[in-house]
Structures are given as structure tokens and as C-alpha cells.
């Protein structure tokens, strides 16, 4: 249509027509035009072309349109052969005579030119608003601009719905960094713009640049994103779930040894724990906090006799430890931070823990957390996890954690092993550790403190004196 605009702009105006007419009349008066009809026609030709430029141009376009329609209906392409060759030359392409590619190109060129010519004829009548009707040249329909779906808001709503349903006992603290990492990688906050290709590329960065383990990428990062996007799709926040099939294969883990501490390893670790004395720096200043020192003294021993997760121990508060008669009891509760199983559980404390002075330590402590310094309950879980991580690093630095054993889980595996060796009731051990029953039948009946105390009392003391 730009060519049509240019052609119309070049049509002769009234001044041009008058000028050409005056020139013709001057030639006639000067006797420059012969008396025969042929000479008069030749002399008048330039004037006629200027005067009738619009109608001549229209007639040419009408003839071209008729020829194109005729050939298109007959399946012929003679009218556009030169145009095809010119197009192929300009783009460095080839299409053999009679080939399917050349036929398709001819077809589309003819349809496009027919549309253009129809619009030019409409303009001759003063209608400049005509729109193409053939899909070959018809502009795509305008799509409604959709409101962005913010990833950050999507995560907040997903988290709140899961918490309301009784899940995410840690309030999503483990998953929130995943969503922050994804937004930072994408450099935008619109879930509508996220593609499967984006998530695959993000996965590759986690593996190759961030050097995360395949299990971490699979079980934490991709699992979180799949859950959020699945929730968004199910709740009609997104039209599809682009994360559904994005996964990371994990190597099958092979154990080169037992998962729990052996007797010798457990004794060496507990002796080091009980003997720990924080060292001052070169200026005589002790940087280690009293909470961390207490955690190094007591957390391994508490883990050894309760099978609790280290973070469940490091979140214990003074008010979570109570004495009933001559029995001391620890309550592991989400009120103090995070409990993977969800609800609270009471665990009687072993006699050796009390004999070594844990009861007196609790009585002397100020109300609140025993092993970390957080004062806001909202920060308890994160502070307890931080202490748990530091304990693991400390034990590894002492070369007391053998390869293949996770310091925060070695005690849980060991307690199960001890229970099997002693013939203790595994259902009671499961209840102490916060594990659910293996069958529906095992969930009937309550595991009481009396039952737990009987199992705890059956566990032997550790030889901690040299």
C-alpha cells in the first residue's frame, strides 16, 4: 500500500494539466503540428496522459486484478513469475520450476496482490478504511493485554493456603529462598512470562554454576516450583503449569557403611562434646556465645537418647523442659520453632542426661530458648537451624563425623539400631522420633509417657569418663 500512496502523490494536479494544455496550444499556433490525424494524436498524447493519469492508472489496476483472479482460479502463475524470481534473488533462495515451494510462494504472492489491488480500488472511491480479509495479509487479531501474575504474590498466596490447610509448619522458610532465587534468575516477577525453557535453563544454572547437588535441585528447588505452579493452575491463576514436567534425575544413592554412628564413633563424639571449652582469640576474647557453647555440650547427648532432629533440640526452650516426679520430660513443639511431623511430642529424658546436670542447667537458664539467642518467636526456627548447621560444621572440623554419615541424622539412625538390638518396640521409637505408623493399625492406641520411659530406661549409658 506504500506504493499506492506514492503513485497517488505523483498524480498530475490541475496546474500540471493546464501547463501541458498550454504547451499543446502553443505548438498548434506555431504550426508545429501536422494537419493529419496521426500527427495531431501524437502531439496530443502527452497532454492526454497527464489529463487522464488517474483513470489510466485505475484501468491498469483493474486489468491486473482481473488477470490475477483469472489465473488464480485456473491454478496458473504466469502473472507473478517475475516477482517470484526477484524475491528469490533478493533473499538468496532457490525454488525450482514446478516445485511445491515455488507453487506455495506464487499462491501467496497472488493472494497478497489481489488484496492490495482491491484496497486501491476502494481508495479510488474515497474509502481509505478498508482492511484485508485474506489471512495471508490480514494482521493478527489483537489479543487482550492480560494483567501480570506476580510470582512473589503467587508464592505468598500458595504459602498461606498451605499453612491454613495444616501444611508448611515452618511457614515456608525452606521454600521461600527458592522462589527468590528463581525471580532473581528470571529478572522479572511475572509468572505468565515463565516458560518451560526458562525453568530448564534455571535448573542448568543450579547444577552447573551454583554447583548444587542433583538431590537438592530435585527435592527442594524444582519440587517447590512445581508445587507453586500446580497450585496456581488448579486455582485458575495461570492457564497452564509449565513446571509440571521439569525434573532433575537423581543418582541412586548407594551406602558404603551404616547410616548411624557406631558405638566407638558415638562415644568419641560425645566425649568431645562434653569436654568442649570455648577458646579465646589472640586478644583473650571468647567469640563463641554461651548459647552455642551450651548447644555443643548438650545437643549431641540429647540427640543420642531421644533420636530427635538436631534442629528440634536446638529450638528447645526452658519452658519445654518439665519435671514430673523424678522424671524429666522434654516437649518438642512447633511453638518453639519447627516440627516436621507437625504436632508436639513429649520425650522422657534418659537418666545419664540428668546425671550430667542437664536439669540444673535448665533450672539456671532464663526463660526462652536454651541454645540460641533469638527473642522473637518468628525467628526461632531460623535461629535453631543456624545453630544446628554450626554444630554439624564443628563436628566435621573435629574429624568426628565419618564419610557417609550426616551429623544431624546419625543419632536418629543409631537410636533405631539400638532399639532393634535391644528388642525394643519400634512403634514407641517412632513416636519418640516423630515418625508416623507404618500401617493404619499402628495408629490405633496412644504411645504414653510410661511406654516411652520404659524404652528410654532400657538404653545403656555411654562410657564418657576416660
Query: Which percent bin holds the helix content?
Result: 40-55%
CATH homologous superfamily descriptor of the largest domain: Intergrase catalytic core
Provide the number of structural domains. 3
Distance between the termini: 98 Å
Number of H- or I-type helical stretches: 19
Please report the first level of CATH classification, the CATH class of the largest domain. Mainly Alpha
General form? rod-shaped
| Rg | 43 Å
InterPro entries: DNA_brk_join_enz, Integrase-like_cat_sf, Integrase_catalytic, Integrase_recombinase_N, Tyrosine_recombinase_XerCD
Keywords: DNA integration, DNA recombination, DNA-binding
Protein name: Site-specific recombinase XerD
Region (Disordered): 124-143
Q: Which descriptors would you attach to this protein?
A:
19 helices, single chain, mainly alpha, three-stranded antiparallel beta sheet, hpI Integrase, Chain A, rod-shaped, 3 domains, 466 residues, 3 strands
Write a structural description:
The chain has 466 residues and is mainly α. The longest helix is centred in the N-terminal third of the chain and has 25 residues, at 100-124. The model has no long low-confidence stretch (mean pLDDT 87). The chain is 54% helix and 3% strand. The N and C termini lie far apart (98 Å). It has 19 helices and 3 strands. A 3-stranded antiparallel β-sheet has the order 1-2-3. It folds into 3 domains: 2-124, no CATH class; 151-234; 263-458, hpI Integrase, Chain A, CATH 1.10.443.10. It is rod-shaped, with a radius of gyration of 43 Å. One of its GO terms (molecular function) is DNA binding. Belongs to the 'phage' integrase family. Residues 256-457 form the Tyr recombinase domain. This is Site-specific recombinase XerD. Keywords: DNA integration, DNA recombination, DNA-binding.
Amino acid at each position: 500500500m506504500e506504493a499506492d500512496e506514492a503513485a497517488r502523490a505523483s498524480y498530475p494536479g490541475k496546474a500540471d494539466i493546464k501547463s501541458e494544455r498550454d504547451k499543446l496550444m502553443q505548438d498548434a499556433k506555431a504550426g508545429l503540428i501536422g494537419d493529419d490525424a496521426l500527427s495531431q494524436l501524437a502531439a496530443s498524447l502527452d497532454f492526454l496522459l497527464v489529463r487522464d493519469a488517474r483513470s489510466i492508472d485505475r484501468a491498469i489496476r483493474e486489468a491486473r486484478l482481473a488477470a490475477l483472479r483469472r489465473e488464480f482460479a485456473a491454478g496458473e502463475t504466469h502473472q507473478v513469475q517475475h516477482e517470484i524470481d526477484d524475491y528469490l534473488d533478493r533473499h538468496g533462495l532457490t525454488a525450482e520450476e514446478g516445485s511445491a515451494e515455488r507453487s506455495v510462494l506464487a499462491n501467496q504472492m497472488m493472494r497478497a496482490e489481489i488484496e492490495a489491488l482491491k484496497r486501491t480500488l476502494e481508495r479510488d472511491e474515497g474509502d481509505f478504511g478498508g482492511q484485508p480479509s485474506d489471512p495471508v495479509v490480514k494482521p493478527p487479531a489483537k489479543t487482550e493485554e492480560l494483567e501480570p501474575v506476580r510470582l512473589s504474590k503467587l508464592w505468598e498466596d500458595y504459602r498461606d493456603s498451605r499453612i491454613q490447610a495444616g501444611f508448611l509448619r515452618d511457614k515456608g522458610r525452606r521454600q521461600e529462598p527458592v522462589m527468590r532465587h528463581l525471580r532473581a534468575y528470571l529478572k522479572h516477577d511475572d509468572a505468565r512470562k515463565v516458560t518451560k525453557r526458562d525453568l530448564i535453563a534455571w535448573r542448568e544454572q543450579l547444577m552447573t554454576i551454583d554447583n548444587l547437588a542433583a538431590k537438592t535441585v530435585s527435592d527442594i528447588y524444582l519440587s517447590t516450583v512445581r508445587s507453586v505452579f500446580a497450585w496456581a493452575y488448579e486455582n485458575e491463576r495461570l492457564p497452564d503449569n509449565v513446571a509440571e514436567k521439569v525434573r532433575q534425575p537423581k543418582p541412586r544413592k548407594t551406602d558404603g557403611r551404616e547410616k548411624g554412628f557406631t558405638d566407638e564413633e558415638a562415644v568419641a563424639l560425645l566425649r568431645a562434646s562434653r569436654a568442649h571449652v570455648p577458646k579465646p582469640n589472640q586478644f583473650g576474647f571468647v567469640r563463641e556465645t554461651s548459647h552455642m557453647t551450651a548447644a555443643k555440650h548438650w545437643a549431641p547427648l540429647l540427640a543420642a537418647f531421644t533420636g530427635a532432629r538436631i534442629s528440634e533440640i536446638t529450638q528447645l526452650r526452658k519452658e519445654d523442659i518439665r519435671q514430673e516426679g523424678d522424671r524429666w520430660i522434654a516437649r518438642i513443639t512447633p511453638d518453639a520453632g519447627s516440627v516436621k511431623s507437625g504436632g508436639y511430642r513429649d520425650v522422657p529424658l534418659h537418666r545419664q542426661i540428668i546425671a550430667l546436670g542437664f536439669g540444673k542447667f535448665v533450672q539456671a537458664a532464663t526463660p526462652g530458648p536454651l541454645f540460641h539467642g533469638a527473642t522473637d518467636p518468628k525467628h526461632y526456627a531460623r535461629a535453631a537451624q543456624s545453630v544446628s548447621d554450626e554444630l554439624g560444621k564443628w563436628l566435621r572440623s573435629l574429624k568426628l563425623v565419618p564419610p557417609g554419615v550426616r551429623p544431624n541424622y546419625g543419632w536418629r539412625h543409631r537410636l533405631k539400631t539400638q532399639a532393634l538390638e535391644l528388642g525394643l518396640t519400634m512403634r514407641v521409637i517412632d513416636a519418640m522420633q516423630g515418625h508416623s505408623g507404618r500401617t493404619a493399625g499402628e495408629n490405633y492406641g496412644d504411645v504414653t509417657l510410661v511406654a516411652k520411659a520404659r524404652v528410654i530406661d532400657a538404653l545403656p549409658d555411654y562410657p564418657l569418663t576416660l
